Amino acid sequence: MYISIPAILLGLGGKCLLNWALVILQRDDICKSLLGVFSVSLAVVDTILTLFFAALHFHADRFVFLLGLKLTRYHVCLLVQILGEVYNALQWPVAVAAGCDHFFTVARRPHAVTGRTRFIVRLLATGLLWYVTVLYVFLLSDFRPVMEDVSYGEIYQCWTVHTTQILQVAVFLLLSLGCAVLHAGFSTRFFTNPPSRDQMTEQSRAHSRRDAVHQAVFIFLNTWAPFLCFLAVLLLAPVGIPAYLGLNTAWLAFLNSFLIAVVLCAVGPASQITQGPAAVPPDSFCEWRFPFILAGEDRT
């Protein structure tokens, strides 16, 4: 679809404000997870590119030199398409890497790794995600920019692609969460006969797991149900979401809570909660720790 350059700049500017607002809102927990570190890097990248695009657009009658290259308004459309392609390609790697980070946070032993070491690893992983994705877009993908044959001074609209990876990631995570809920729901139905002593232990574990899954789903939906409805309407709308706006801190915050719910359902938080609050990945929007800690204390 074609979008005017002022509308692109306005959208990017609004996205930058949203990015930094959510980064500041999550400042206490922002560097304690891979998604938090990546959110900060995304806010920085978006801000730098938005200022650069604005400089190219408002200097339409002149040239901007960068690293020996002469850039004009004509390059805004090219760079916006490259940015959208990079953000599209980042969706799955970020989701997978964040899921692994949350899994190791829940499954690890307390104080197994120092906080500084975890931060350095997450910082390196964030840089690696950006680097590998950019290389993929330029060297391995079939990306071909769509450019009109007009002079740089007459360009007022740019062709931009829609983002489809958000819908794919959301559907996959919904299916994963649904499978975890079904597994927890049917796990207690195997005990049809009066249980023996060994079966009592297995049955109590199954009930504990089911309760934890129900609790995780309830906490997640209690916080993010309005956003889920808004996201469904936005993704099903005929206009679609431009790719350069698809990757933002609001989506990453939602993805963070979603991945925490999936990991807690899959790993079984009842067996891990004895480690205390450190066993639950940080989340500034969902209160995971309080209910799970109470549940663990009641069972002990």
User: What are the low-pLDDT stretches, counting only 5+ consecutive residues below 50?
Assistant: 190-200, 269-274, 290-300
Cα Rg: 23 Å
Total count of helical runs of at least 4 residues: 10
Class from secondary-structure proportions:
mainly alpha
How would you characterize this protein structure?
Mean pLDDT is 77; it is low at 190-200, 269-274 and 290-300. β2 and β3 form a beta hairpin. The chain has helices at 5-25, 34-58, 74-107, 115-140, 165-187, 197-236, 243-246, 249-267, 269-272, 289-299, and strands spanning 2-4, 64-66, 69-71, 157-159. The protein has ten helices and four strands; from the N terminus they run βααββααβαααααα. The chain is mainly alpha-helical.
In short:
With about 300 residues, the chain is mostly helical.
Can you tag this structure with a few keywords?
10 helices; two-stranded antiparallel ribbon; disordered C terminus; 300 residues; mainly alpha
List strands and helices in order, with pairings.
Elements: E1 2-4, H1 5-25, H2 34-58, E2 64-66, E3 69-71, H3 74-107, H4 115-140, E4 157-159, H5 165-187, H6 197-236, H7 243-246, H8 249-267, H9 269-272, H10 289-299
Antiparallel strand pairs: 1-4, 2-3
